[in-house]
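Materials and Methods. Structural model of Flagellar biosynthesis protein FlgJ. The 81-residue sequence of Flagellar biosynthesis protein FlgJ from Paracoccus liaowanqingii was retrieved and submitted for structure prediction as follows.
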Amino acid sequence: MQIDPLVPARGPKAGPHAVADQLEQAFLEEMLKYCGPSPAEGAFSGGAGEDQFASFLTREHAALLARRLDLGFAAMLGARE
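The predicted structure was written out as tokens:
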């Protein structure tokens, strides 16, 4: 029996616009870590589970903001005119 090595699927290459969008999202994610919504406290808080999954929520908030805002990263990278 011979097992072939797994080869990752090759998708389309990310263009400068996609790279700039990812950079904007990463920048917003870092910003939201420090000044974003704080976890709930008290009887209705998420407890340990909320602490574990807070980064996923922060990433989604950053993705939504990146879609709606243009921080100009693409222009700085020379991708847009």
